[in-house]
Write a structure and sequence with these properties.
The complex is a heterotrimer of chains A (216), B (223) and C (243). Chain A has 216 residues and is mainly α. Chain A contains eight helices and no strands. Classes of the chains: A mainly alpha (216), B mainly alpha (223), C alpha/beta (243). At the A-B interface, helix 3, helix 6, helix 7 and helix 8 of A face helix 2, helix 3 and helix 8 of B.
């Protein structure tokens, strides 16, 4: 039965958007923790650890996220781990995020001038003090814009989980579009919802950058 | 684990996979070419003194960058017919991807154009080079060198992003995974094989782009 | 006993030997200007003194601590040896006061109030009391370099090392930094400075050490050595930099 697009439908889309945000946040947190490990493995002075991290990053960044989603969705049950679309989506996105965040943070850390390490050393700060008081505060500031930029990417990436059947904003739009036969309006509304989320994030990033003072 | 992996069940579908690879490469190259043209117009419009023109270009770029490709494709393929524009899956894919990548390419090209320093042009002319020589050696060459890495990685991102158009049924590589899955019921093997095929393609293109960079920019500047 | 005792140090970067058996001593209260062409090893020698560079062989003792012994805690040594760099290297995320306080709080484990008092006194000493709240990117090169000096002085070092600290400055900003050094000289601070400022070397330093191809080529009282060089190498170096 074809029906009109009403206020209830907009509520339905907004409720689905909560899952988009939840999924992005979970991937950000889990991917962030794993990403720290990736960044550390990538820079420690131990070649096999570097190779492992580089291989992992290439594998994740060299394959489509859509493929990763399907592999976890169909693959985990074969190992006796029963997962729904939700778990497969959260896992695939977290893995994906860890590779990207790991690279962003490694780059931020390495873009702090080696002279800052030296200046800290010349004052008698030990390695840990140099890292925490001199290098990390600068690296964190450098990483804000690319990290929030990646979070925007992550919000957009969650749309692909619709294709393994997870009901978030895009999947909800597909369902609504099929029920109302108003694809242009429904997908238009979904696009506006994504825009609001992503645009707020980019504003947040500019605000954070202004608040943490530092040159470069 | 009791499951027997049977990748050899996919062997009869080699032809489909090869056809998918061909279509994916075709889609990627065609889109990249259109996106570069779109991007050039966007870059010039954004730098224009006409506020209406630069505002429109900025709005386009922001609209694209803040929404997912999948939704953009759905609007083009499922949305446009309701205002009388009907496209087949492949055309919708090319148009949707070009609109998407055009915005990103526009930003890359803008950075490239802005990297050109007028003082370099003056220096070139002062050395007695003709306008054409100056343009080639101090404008075009350094600008292309500056944006080449970003464009190369954009190409690889596009190659991966074409997988998304499988949701329209465009017949490219990722779509073949769904097809093989439906015939063999070997879902995991099908998607794993196709995903690894993308890995081979992206690693291949990265190596190719690095080689071209070395041949064109590194070796030439040494000679 | 001399404050700094360097004995036959050798240092290579890859295949290039930069220091080829340098030996020298510095007494407490002495001011030595180290001069020489770029690549002569003068900066490398200075950086060996506080262990920023490790030597391949030879021995360096500073204030009774053997820098070259593997067991020596370099962080303890560096509390007694101040160093100022050509590129200032202030911490861009901290304001002037916090830049000076950092090592006092972390290394000397002072309370904030105590560290702040010392920081303010040191910053006032270099003439920047009105810039305590400013961030490095809001200061001129000369001002940044004076803060860097204050940051080192706050640790009450027994010797100060200066590595071409005026080389990155615009000519009109050199004077304000040299004035701070003259003030330190009057107070009797032991100093070793790599510099291209020959007039400053002549008027303020006690000694000039001329380095040439990885060795100390000439070493003597500042005025005498600069006015009447004994070796042709120093002579041609001086005529190149003075004209």
């Amino acid at each position: 039965m074809i029906r009109e697009l009403g206020p209830n439908d907009i509520v339905y889309l907004l409720e689905a958007a909560r899952w988009t945000i939840a999924l992005a946040l979970i991937a950000m947190v889990a991917g962030g923790v794993l990403g720290l490990v990736v960044a550390v493995l990538r820079i420690v002075a131990f070649a096999p650890a570097n190779w492992l991290a580089i291989g992992y990053i290439n594998l994740v960044q060299g394959t489509p996220l859509l493929g990763q989603l399907f592999i976890f969705f169909f693959g985990l049950p074969l190992f006796g781990i029963q997962v729904g679309a939700w778990e497969a989506a959260a896992l695939a996105l977290s893995i994906n995020a860890s590779a990207f965040l790991g690279e962003i943070w490694r780059g931020s850390l390495q873009s702090v001038s080696p002279r800052q390490w030296e200046a800290g050393a010349a004052l008698g700060l030990n390695y840990w003090q140099r890292l925490t008081s001199v290098i990390l505060p600068q690296a964190v500031r450098i990483s804000i814009a690319p990290t929030v930029g990646y979070l925007m990417q992550l919000v957009k990436d969650t749309s692909l989980t619709a294709l393994i059947g997870f009901i978030e904003l895009t999947r909800a739009s597909q369902i609504l579009s099929a029920a109302t036969f108003k694809p242009l309006q429904v997908y238009g509304l979904a696009a506006i919802a994504y825009f609001v989320i992503c645009f707020s994030l980019s504003r947040l990033s500019q605000h954070l950058e202004k608040r943490t003072h530092a040159a470069r | 684990m009791n499951y027997n992996f049977r990748f050899n069940a996919l062997a009869p579908y080699t032809g489909e996979i090869l056809r998918g690879i061909g279509l994916t490469l075709q889609l990627t190259c065609l889109t990249m070419a259109i996106a570069l043209v779109v991007g050039l117009f966007v870059a010039l419009a954004r730098m224009s003194d006409n506020r209406l023109l630069s505002g429109a270009a900025a709005t386009y770029v922001e609209a694209i960058r803040n929404t997912p490709l999948l939704v953009q494709l759905f609007i083009v393929f499922f949305g446009l017919p309701s205002i009388g524009i009907r496209l087949d899956a492949y055309t919708a894919a090319v148009i949707g991807l070009s609109i998407n990548v055009g915005a990103y390419a526009g930003e890359i090209l803008r950075a490239g154009i802005q990297s050109i320093r007028p003082s370099q042009v003056e220096a070139g002319r002062a050395l007695g080079m003709t306008a054409g020589q100056t343009f080639r050696s101090v404008v075009l060459f350094p600008a292309v060198k500056a944006i080449y890495p970003a464009l190369a990685s954009q190409f690889v991102l596009l190659l991966l992003a074409t997988s998304v158009v499988s949701s329209l049924g465009a017949g490219e590589l990722f779509h073949q995974a769904a097809f093989i899955d439906s015939r063999t019921y070997r879902s995991f093997e099908a998607y794993a094989l196709i995903t690894l095929t993308y890995l081979i393609l992206t690693l291949g293109f990265r190596a190719l782009f690095a080689l071209v960079y070395w041949l064109v920019f590194v070796r030439r500047s040494r000679a | 006993m001399p404050l700094v005792e360097i004995t036959d140090i050798h240092k290579s970067f890859g295949l290039v030997e930069v220091l080829k058996g340098v030996s020298l001593t510095l007494e407490k209260g002495e001011i030595a200007a180290v001069i020489g062409r770029s690549g002569s090893g003068k900066s490398t020698m200075l950086r060996c003194v506080n262990g920023l560079e490790r030597v391949q062989s030879g021995r360096i003792v500073v204030d009774g601590l053997e820098v070259t012994a593997p067991a020596t805690d370099l962080n303890v040594l560096r509390q007694r040896v101040g160093m100022v760099f050509q590129s200032y290297n202030l911490f861009p995320h901290l304001n002037v006061e916090r830049n000076v306080m950092l090592a006092l709080r972390k290394v000397r484990r002072m309370a904030d109030a105590e560290a702040r008092d010392i920081a303010r006194a040191m910053v006032a000493k270099v003439g920047l009391a009105d810039k305590l709240a400013a961030y490095p990117d809001e200061l001129s090169g000369g001002q940044q370099q004076r803060v860097a000096i204050a940051r080192s002085l706050a640790m009450q070092p027994t010797i100060m090392l200066f590595d071409e600290i005026t080389s990155a400055l615009d000519p009109e900003l050199v004077g304000e930094v040299l004035k701070v050094l003259e003030e330190l000289a009057r107070e009797g601070m032991t100093m070793m400075l790599v510099t291209h400022e020959m007039n400053f070397a002549k008027n303020v330093a006690d000694r000039v050490i001329f380095m040439h191809q990885g060795n100390v080529h000439e070493d003597g009282p500042a005025r005498e050595t600069l006015l009447e060089p004994r070796t042709p190498e120093l002579g041609s170096f001086l005529s190149a930099v003075l004209h």
